[in-house]
Amino acid sequence: MQEENKSYTSIFKASAIFGGVQIFQVFIQILRSKIVAVLLGPAGIGVLGLFNVTIGFIGGITNFGLGTSAIKEIAIASEEGESNKISETLNVLNKLVWFTGLLGMIISIVFSSLLSQLTFGNTNYTYAFIWLSISLLFNQLTTGKLVVLQGFRKVKDLAKANLLGSLFGLIIVFPLFYFFGNDGIAASIIVYSITLFFFAWYFTRKIEIEQMHLSTSEVFKKGKVMLTMGFILGISGLITILSNYLTSIFIVKLGNIEQLGFYNAGIAITTNYTGLIFAAIATDYHPRLSALSNNSLVKEAVNQQAEIALIILTPLILVFLVFGDILIRLLYSKDFLSIKPMISWILIGTFFKLFSWAISFTFVARGKVKLFFWNELLANVYVLIFSLVGYYFFGLIGLGYASLLSFIIYSIQVYILAQKSFSFSYEAVFIKNFLIQFGIALLCYFGMTQLDSIFGYLLGCILILISFLYSLRELDKKINLRRFLKK
After folding, report:
1. Three-state secondary structure call for residue 101
2. Could you state, in order of their start, the residue ranges of all structural domains in the chain?
3. CA distance 135 to 54
4. Where are the alpha helices (DSSP H) in 181-256?
5. Are the C-beta atoms of residues 448 and 321 closer than 8 Å to each other?
6. Sign of the C-alpha dihedral, residues 150, 152, 155, 159?
7. Which among 320, 193, 187 has a CA at the least distance from the CA of 266?
8. Cα–Cα distances in Å, from 429 out to 15, 308, 326, 356, 434?
9. What's the pLDDT at 485?
10. pTM above 0.90, yes or no
11. Cβ–Cβ contacts within 10 Å for residue 413, how many?
12. Is the pLDDT confidence value at 484 over 70?
């Protein structure tokens, strides 16, 4: 029991450290979103979103999934404690990120005119995509640095790198939006990527790496495992990006660029709002899971991780369900209030995302890369179909319906695959807590939509308090809060 408490404490401590940084990053993102919304409006957010999704698409083609596959290799080498193996892995990774980063840069330059035509329907943004190729290189170099910190579980340094990169990135790009408006969007993406790289480099320079002179053939030979796994993971990520890209193009064609701006704002809110918890937990979870050696330990780790995520996440979801209008005004402006229903359904679906999220890491951690690929491919197919159909018939709120339905199906799919592959199952305590917290969230949503304003807010506040106290009690059972806070 004491060993189990230590495990929960370790999970919560890592989540708290990086979660604090994530909260600060969300605050920075709030300021950035507010600046873009005020200075550029929905159309500007739409252009920014199209640039990001296109660059993400190219990155997905060329990055070979090194941001995920390398973590496993570094975590294993670090766990074994062999200095030569660690140095070799890091040297190979450093060469591979340069190769893949330059590959992305070249593709963006060569196909700049085509990218502009496909994304915006004209060639007016050809030079923008040429310049944006710089961000592709620096994004991949940054990934290489952050992977090292994450693989060695240097949570504090990783947190500092992300925090300072985001802060100074915002400070530097603000004048670009202010003085150049939409013309400064491409430059802001480039400057932001360079800023993130600088701080990632700064914190990894403290890790001593024995330099090895490796030929190109040796790099690819020794990096074969990373590249093979990374290629499959990269294709999977590429399919996700392609799905998002097609959804964005569909919204523009059926609606307009402002509708895309609303959609991107809604996704940004839900991703940043709940993503801070997922990102905080995954920072330590992925390398820890990769180092585990058998199914029983993996099952225990997944259950513990899912319980902590549920405890932290539920009150945050309820706060948005109740005070979403206020938060949207704060994050953007009153012009964006129409996205509240869409966001609410996405957040309700987040419970099922949480249910499947903790499990999905196990496929890569256990070396089931092909299973992971086919699982994600199938999911992206129905996510795309649901999104297109949802928007066609119901508009923005239809995208919320699609998200909820996709999360439900995906959670069932992942659970069945994990059960058949390595006899995984959730423990009764997690299922009980999941049903209780999900039930509270449904009551909160229907109270806010069906009751008069004052009664809805009153019921919502009561439910937030109940959920918070329940989460606090469950957390105390697992880590002994008083002793944790003393430490």
Report:
1. helix
2. 22-254, 292-487
3. 12
4. 185-204, 216-222, 224-254
5. yes
6. negative
7. 320
8. 21, 12, 35, 16, 9
9. 65
10. no
11. 15
12. no
